Amino acid sequence: MANLKLTDVGKAYGGTVEVLKDINLDITTGELIVFVGPSGCGKSTLLRMVAGLEKITAGTLEIDGEVMNNVPPAQRGIAMVFQSYALYPHMTVRDNMAFALKIAKKTKEEIDAAVENAARILQLTEYLDRLPKALSGGQRQRVAIGRSIVRDPKVYLFDEPLSNLDAALRVATRIEIAQLKESMPESTMIYVTHDQVEAMTLASRIVVLANKGIAQVGSPLELYERPENEFVAQFIGSPAMNLLAGEIVATGEVTQVTLPEGAGSISANIPTTDADKGRKVNVGIRPEDMVLASGPDYAYRGTVEISEALGEVTQLYFKKSKPEHEPVIAKLPGIHTNVRGNEMHMTAAPEKVHLFADGKSLLYR
Amino acid sequence: MSPLLQGVLTILIGVGGCVGYFYASNLILDKVIFPPTKTDPGRNINRANIVRPWLFLFPALFALGLYLVYPVIGSFWRSLYNRAGDEFIGFGNYTTMFGDAGFQTALFNNFLWVLVVPAASTFFGLLVAQLTDRLSWGNIAKSLIFMPMAISFVGASLIWKFVYANNADIGLINAIRDLFGASEPLDVLQLRFWNNFFLMFILVWIQTGFAMVILSAALRGIPEETVEAAIIDGANPFQIFFKIKVPQIMGTIVVVWTTITILVLKVFDIVYTMTGGNFGTEILPSYMMSYMFRDDGRATAVAFVIMIIVLPVMIWNIRQARAEMR
Questions:
Q1: ABC transporter domain: which residues (chain A) (predicted)?
Q2: Which of these, A36, A28, A1, lies nearest to A208 by C-alpha position?
C-alpha cells in the first residue's frame, strides 16, 4: 500500500546530543522491515520518528512520496503497536479498537464492521466486551494489533511487541504475526526488536543499526552469509562469530591467511590482489562452521575449557590466549564426550571464511 | 519550671512511656503469663502469639474508645436532654431544631457548600495539575498554589477580609469596582445569598492546592504509552484529557472529592471569622458553635446531624481509597 523513504534522517536532542544521523532507507510496499541493534542504538527512536511521536531533526521522511516531517501522527496513515500494549484500561476490547474510528467520526455501521472483522482475524470475538485487565498478555497484544488493523493503515509499526510475553507465548505470537503479514501481502510493516530470532524469521529485510547509523541492510540470510562489517558479523548469529587476527600471505581468487596466534593457516574464497599481501586482517569463522582439522593444516589450535552438551550440538569454549580476548567457540554437531582439557585443531571450509580489514569485509570492495 | 523544660519532660515521659509499655508488657507476656516451660513450651508460645497483637493494639483501641467512641455515645445521650441537662426530653431538641428557621438556613447553606466547594476545588486542582504538568516553571506555580494549604482557616479568612473589605482603598473587589466607576463601595459579605459564595471561595482557594497535588501525582502515574496511542489514534488534546486521562484517574478524583466533602462538612472557622454566621451565611458547624455552652442539648443534636450526613461520604471515601490502593 505504501512506500517509505528516509533521506539523511537524523535525530539530535537539544541540538547537541546526536543519537541518529544520515539514515537513508527505501522501503517498498509489502515489505516487513525489521530494525535490530544493541540496546540504546536508537531503533525505537527511529520508529517513533516514523510514527511522529518524536520530531525528525534532520532529513526527510516520505510516505508515498509525500513529505511527512510535520504531519501529525494520525494523518500519516500509520498505526503502532507498543511493547506495553498501551491499551486504554478503562475501555472494553471493543471500545479500545473502536476509539480511533470514533475519533475519526466514522458511522456506527462502519465501526462495528471494522471491529468485528479485526476481532475475527485475531480470534478475539468472544472477548470483545471484556476489559483489558481480564485478558492474558497474549490476548492484550492481539487487541493492540487489532486496534491497528481497524484503522487500515498504510504502514504498521511494531515496537518490540513480544518483549513482555513469556517464551512460549512469544513464539506463538511471532508465528501469528507472520501469518497476519501473509494475509495482508500489500501492507508495509516496520518491526523493532532486539531479538535476532524474531528478526531472522519475520523480516523480508533487516536493518542493523549501530553507532548512530545503519550498519547494513539486507535479507536475513544475506546478513548471515555476507556481513559487510565485523559488527553485523558478530551481531547476527548466536553464539557470535569468532574473529582471529591473521595476515594475508597469498593472494588471488583464493586468499591464504596465516594466524600467528594459533600458528596455523587457512584459505578463504575471497579474491584479493597483490597489494593486499602482508595486510593484517581478522579472520571470521562462525562457531557452527568450525570443524575438526583432519590434515596438518588448521586455523586454530586451543584447549577446550568448557564443553556444553546440548544434544543436537556440543558447544566448545576454548581457553583464551589473552584474558581480554573473547573465547573462541566451536559448535560441533552431535554429541562429543570427554573433550574437556583436550587440545584440538580447528579449521573451516574456504567458502565459510570471512575476512575483515579495519572492521570492513573484504567481500565488499 | 520553665515551659520549655516542661515540654521536653512531657515528650520524654510520653515517648518513654510508650516504649516502656510495649517492652514491659511483651516481657511479662513471655516470661510470666505464658512462659515456654519445659512441659509444653510450644502451646504456650502459640498462646502468647494469639494475645500479643491485642496487647500491642490496646493503647490505640483505648485512646480511640475514650476520645471517639465514648464522645459519640455521650453526645447522643446529651442531645436527648434539655438545655440545662437535668431533664430527659427524648427527641425534643431534634424536633425544635428542625422547625427552627436558622437551622433550615444552615442546612440549605451547607448543602450549597457541599455542592460547590468540592466540585470547584477538584476542578481547579485538576486544571492546574494538567496545565502545569509539562511547564518548566510548573513546579513554582504548583508551590504557589499549594501555599494556602499551609495557612490556617482563620488566617486565610483574615487575608480575605482585606480582599472583601468595604473600602476601595483596601478591598480588592471594591478597588476593581472603583476602577470601573462605581461611586459607593459595596460590602459583598452582606449581599444576601451571594455572600455564601464569597465565603466558599476562600475554602476553594485553600483546597485547590490539596486537590492539585494528589491529582498531579495521579496524572503522572498514567502510562505515557496510552497517551501516545491516543495521539496516533488521532485524539486531540481535549479528547486525550477527557477520554484517556480523566477516566484513568477517576478513582483518585473521587477520593479527593469525598475528602474535601468531609472537610466542608466540618468547617466552621471561615464563617465564624468572616460573618459570625450573620447575613444568612450560617452553616451547620457554625450553627452548632453558636449554641455551644448556651444550649448543649441543641448543640449536641446539631453535631449528631452533621455526623449522620458525613457518615455515608466517609464510608464511600474509605472504600474508594482502599480500591485505589489495590
A1: 4-236
A2: A36
CATH 3.40.50.300 maps onto chain A at: 4-235
pLDDT > 70: percent of chain B: 99
CATH 2.40.50.140 boundaries in chain A: 242-361
Q: Does B232 touch chain A (CB under 8 A)?
A: yes
Domains of chain B: 3-79 (no CATH), 100-325 (1.10.3720.10)
Chain A residues whose beta carbon lies within 8 Å of the beta carbon of residue B251: none
Burial of A64 (0-12, 13-18, 19+ CB in 10 A): middle
Return the SS3 of A244: strand
Contact A73 B225 (CB under 8 A): no
Q: What is the predicted ipTM?
A: 0.83
- Give the number of other Cβ atoms within 10 Å of residue A332's Cβ: 19
Fold of A4-235: Rossmann fold (3.40.50)
Count of other CB atoms within 10 angstroms of residue B210: 20
pLDDT in tens, A171-207: 888 898 898 888 888 889 999 998 888 999 999 999 9
Task: For A98, name the nearest residue in chain B, comparing CA atoms only.
Answer: B233
Residues of chain B contacting residue A104, judged by C-beta atoms under 8 Å apart: 234
Asked if the C-beta of A106 comes within 8 angstroms of chain B's C-beta atoms, the answer is no
Angstrom distance (rounded) from CA B172 to CA B178: 10
Q: How far apart are CA A138 and CA A174, in angstroms?
A: 11
Compare all CA atoms of chain B with the CA of A97 and give the residue at the minimum distance: B233
SS3 B148: helix
